[in-house]
Amino acid sequence: MTKKPTLQPQDKYVIRLPDGMRERLKADAEASNRSMNAEIVARLEDFPNLRTALVVTTRENARLRDENERLGWELDRLTEVQERFFNKDGSKKPVLAIPQPLLDRIQLAAEQNHRSLDNEAIAALEIAFPPKGIDVDLLSAFLESLAGVSAPDGDKEYLDYINETLAKAKQPWTVRAGWDGEVRFYPYASPSKDRQESDSDGEE
């Protein structure tokens, strides 16, 4: 008579499962073609591997997040370069080679004026190279600003300042206050010497 093999003693532990878990374990066990006990044992044996996988996944997610931030920074930098050197239609913008010492001075001025490097350079160029003509609307506003000028002696410094500003801007306009306090506007040329003498005679 053949003896049955002696079963190895096994530890037993009774656990209480939350509502609904037994049904889920049973369904998973049937899908894996094993008993519920084997399903539970298999999951417990896989737990260390799952924990290691979780750590690896967490680290990989952190690496991918850092890489995503780096790529976002690179994209912003490339976008800035594209806007600096290319027009919206894709054509190249003119490139100006500025010596480093001058570039450093422009950068310092930009920081002091709270402007970008480009805006500071453009502002300086606008002053150095004003437009040849004068805007009609600006001219109208300028003349309106002089409407309150009365006695020529009292506002001589103001008018001199205006004329100096126009001269520096290479604008062909001159303003003067006559003997009667009226502001006269001379386009394209300063008043002639004869005209000035005529005005002086009128004051007498």
What can you see in these coordinates?
- 59% of the residues lie in helices and 5% in strands.
- A two-stranded antiparallel ribbon has the order 1-2.
- Helix 1 (21-31) crosses helix 2 and helix 3 (100-112) packs across helix 4.
- The protein is built from 7 helices and 2 strands, in the order ααααααββα.
- It is mostly helical and 204 residues long.
Q: Tell me, briefly, the overall form.
A: rod-shaped
Largest sheet: 2 strands, antiparallel
Structural class: mainly alpha
Average residue-wise pLDDT:
75
Terminal Cα separation, in Å? 154 Å
Strand-residue fraction? Answer: under 5%
Strand order across the largest sheet:
1-2
Determine Rg (CA atoms, Å).
43 Å
Which spans have pLDDT < 50 for at least 5 consecutive residues? 188-204
The H-and-E topology, N to C, reads as HHHHHHEEH
- SS elements, strand count: 2
Tell me roughly what share of residues is in helical segments.
55-70%
Layout of helices and strands:
Layout: H1 21-31, H2 36-85, H3 100-112, H4 117-128, H5 136-145, H6 156-168, E1 173-177, E2 183-187, H7 193-203
Antiparallel strand pairs: 1-2
Helix pairs in contact: 1-2, 3-4
What is the compact description of this entry?
By secondary structure, this protein is mainly alpha-helical.
Name its key features:
204 residues; rod-shaped; two-stranded antiparallel sheet; 2 strands; disordered C terminus; single chain; 59% helix; mainly alpha
